[in-house]
Amino acid sequence: MDIQILGAHNCESQKSRLVSLLIDEVLAIDAGSLTSSLSFEAQQKLKALLITHEHYDHIRDIPAISMNFYLEKATINVYAPQSVYDTLSTHLLNGLIYPKFLEKPENKPTIRFTVIEPGKSEQIEGYSILALPLNHSIPAVGYQVTSPDGKVIFYTGDSGPGLTDCWQHISPQLLIVEVTASDRFKEAAGNRGHLTPALLKQELIAFRELKGYLPQVITVHMSPGLEAEIEAEIATVAAALDSPISLAYEGMRLHL
Ligand SMILES: [Zn+2]
Ligand SMILES: [Zn+2]
Predict the structure, then answer these.
(1) Which of 26, 36, 89, 158 is deepest in the core (most CB within 10 A)?
(2) Quick one: which ligand is closest to 53's CA?
(3) Radius of gyration of the chain (CA)
(4) How does pLDDT run across 186-223, given as a tens digit for each residue?
């Protein structure tokens, strides 16, 4: 499994992009930086796009990639909870802000949308996909992705503390987990459904107690202004747990 981190942050600038992952060049998760990171040719290779929740930083490039597919007379397969469909159709792809790509062209809409049910494993383009509900400010899911050759990753999307229920259902070799803020914002971040290094540490201790191991951990969705603090605190957590944890960056590539 080849994993590219297209966007690793929660705020965009010339140097930071909103969160998006690309697996084996065909499966993308979250659309914070899909069009800004991929050539038209690379975009056309996408077979499926999974979305964790409808916050803007995770759906941002859906209108843009839909236009690109529409102009190619192609269809993009999007998988997400129902709430993502409702938000896109009401607020973005509503015929005012942008064309109704969920409904048009008639008979063959540009977006072929499939509702994902949390807790139910789905086969998508040869991958086994399991969506699990997480603790965020709105309903959100994380995705476990198992490749045809048995490699397993889990990506949280946005999540606050309380991942033990989720841990019970997954066994990833690589965990891509959000860490939005540094520990001086621990309480506010936790209340808003985000993690800090100290909050992540508690979740990883629970994971190890439950599963008897820790996967390789990569953090995403960092707030760029807090990144130096987050990095120092993550190093302390990694040392305490004696397990590798690193911060993702735009263009990072991992192989399983
Ligand atoms: Zn969010
Ligand atoms: Zn977010």
Answers:
(1) 158
(2) 1
(3) 18
(4) 999 999 999 999 999 999 999 999 999 999 999 999 99
- Ligand 2 ion: nearby residues, β-carbon < 5 Å: 55, 57, 158
Percent of the chain residues topping a pLDDT of 90: 100
Ligand found nearest the CA of 134: 1
CA atoms within 13 A of residue 66's CA, in its CB half-sphere: 26
Q: How far is residue 21's CA from residue 29's CA, in Å, rounded to a whole number?
A: 5
pLDDT in tens, 146-181: 999 999 999 999 999 999 999 999 999 999 999 999
What does the mean pLDDT of the chain come to? Answer: 98
Distance 234 CA to ligand 2 centre (A): 19
Q: What distance in angstroms lies between residue 224's CA and the mean position of ligand 2's atoms?
A: 13
What pLDDT does 244 receive?
97
Question: Hunting for tokens 């600038």 — which residue is that?
Answer: 13
Quote the CA–CA distance of 125 and 164 in Å, as a whole number. Answer: 29
How many angstroms separate the alpha carbon of residue 198 from the centre of ligand 2? 19
